[in-house]
Design goal:
- The protein is α/β, with parallel strands linked by helices.
- The chain has two domains: 151 residues, 3-Layer(aba) Sandwich (Collagenase (Catalytic Domain)); 238 residues, Aldolase class I (TIM Barrel, Alpha-Beta Barrel).
- Helix content is 49%, strand content 17%.
- The chain has an eight-stranded parallel beta barrel, surrounded by eight helices. A four-stranded mixed sheet has the order 1-2-4-3, with helices on both faces.
- Helix 15 packs across helix 16.
- About 2% of the residues have low confidence.
Length: 392
């Protein structure tokens, strides 16, 4: 499912507003079972929509929304679903209507998107009063449902507390305790705790894992290599999910994604073993089509897209890497995988990743723990959550 927005209007519109409207359109597509389809939304002024209204509906003056279906009728078996059609919305009219109805512009835009999309899906309000009443009822139903669920588009924030354990291990003592740190992160609003139990136990220890399994109230995500010893521990402890990552003894941090395509047989067996015991599995991969398709083939529930190259890039290269991540996230979502992302994300580069619709959760560790040295852990988590909320 893809939603493409384009802005053809003389007046500047904040990109954050366009992202919100795109979120609305994605939600509507999902709710109306339009998965696998594409829709284009074009934001224009009154002059342009008036011209279209005259040419195609033979009516004078501007209107608020027009829909142009690409496909007539149903998609037949064997036919690949593609472009559903185009929705044209006049921002000028939408703004006037929002003022007249004493609504926020976002509220009015949601109704216009819903109205336009329903037309593309075959609903009509001009054929009869009964059809008009039916379409209006559906619009009200969508508005009420979205009011309850609209926050789902802000990606969840999961905090990796490995670096708290790294500080502790530097002195070989008991402080700071990653178990205490995890509790503070949850109190500040984090929706998950991530730890990496390495074979060399350089930071997180077995004791930490067992205590965190007992104390984490949100979700405990255990990162691990596909080593027999660690698999046995995961099966014993039963984290809420496991993320399989590549692991090298001399690396400072995870250096890249798993080669799922090149190691399908081994990874498929591990995925089956863990998921057979009710532990969902995520695969930490580079944002490459081959790796995403392989992850689906071996039965993973999630993929976590490696954002390291994006985080390290500058200028146009960063934009290129961002586009790769967005394309990969969209593909993974289309294939039925849930999508997380992480590695190298900080207070400067996270917003663009958080704005990608398909991404469910961001895993962030080093940046938040570093920030905590200045402002405290709870404040550091809340600052990151605020940034993600604004981006979404």
């Amino acid at each position: 499912m893809s939603v493409f927005f384009s802005l053809r209007h003389r007046r500047k519109t904040a990109q954050s507003a366009v992202r919100r409207w795109r979120h609305q359109a994605v939600w509507l597509m999902q709710t109306l079972a339009a998965a696998g389809r594409e829709v284009s939304v074009v934001l224009v002024d009154d002059a342009e929509i008036a011209a279209l209204n005259a040419a195609y509906r033979h009516k004078s003056g501007p209107t608020n929304v027009l829909s142009f279906a690409t496909l007539d009728g149903e998609v037949f078996p064997g036919q690949t679903p593609d472009e559903l059609g185009e929705i044209i919305i006049s921002l000028d009219t939408a703004r006037r209507e929002a003022v007249a109805l004493r609504q926020r512009l976002d509220t009015r835009m949601f109704w216009l998107l819903a109205h336009g999309l329903l037309h593309l899906l075959g609903w009509d309000h001009e054929t009869s009063e009964a059809d008009a009443a039916r379409m209006r009822a559906k619009e009200l139903e969508l508005i009420a449902e979205f009011a309850k669920t609209r926050r789902i588009y802000m990606p969840k924030l999961a905090i990796n507390v490995d670096h708290i354990a790294t500080i502790r291990q530097a002195r070989g003592g008991q402080e700071p305790d990653p178990v205490t740190a995890a509790a503070l992160c949850e109190l500040a609003g984090a929706m998950g705790i991530v730890i990496h139990l390495r074979e060399d136990r350089r930071h997180i220890q077995d004791r930490d894992l067992h205590l965190l399994r007992q104390t984490v109230k949100t979700k405990l995500n255990l990162e691990m290599g596909a080593a027999r010893e660690i698999i046995a521990i995961a099966l014993e402890v039963g984290p809420d999910m496991v993320t399989l990552v590549p692991e090298k003894r001399l690396e400072l941090t995870t250096e890249g994604g798993l080669d799922v395509a090149g190691d399908k047989m081994k990874l498929a067996a591990v995925v089956a073993q863990l998921q057979g015991e009710g532990i969902p599995v995520s695969l930490f991969i580079d944002p490459e089509e081959e790796q995403i398709e392989a992850a689906r083939e071996i039965g993973a529930t999630f993929v976590e897209l490696h954002t390291g190259k994006y985080a390290d890039a500058k200028g146009t290269e960063r934009l290129f890497q961002l586009a790769k991540i967005e394309t990969a996230a969209t593909l993974a979502s289309h294939l039925g995988l849930l999508v997380n992302a992480g590695h190298g994300l900080d207070y400067r580069n996270t917003a663009a990743i958080a704005a990608i619709d398909a991404i469910e959760e961001l895993s962030i560790g080093h940046a938040v723990i570093s920030r905590a040295a200045y402002v405290g852990l709870e404040n550091a988590v809340r600052e990151m959550l605020t940034m993600i909320e604004k981006a979404g």
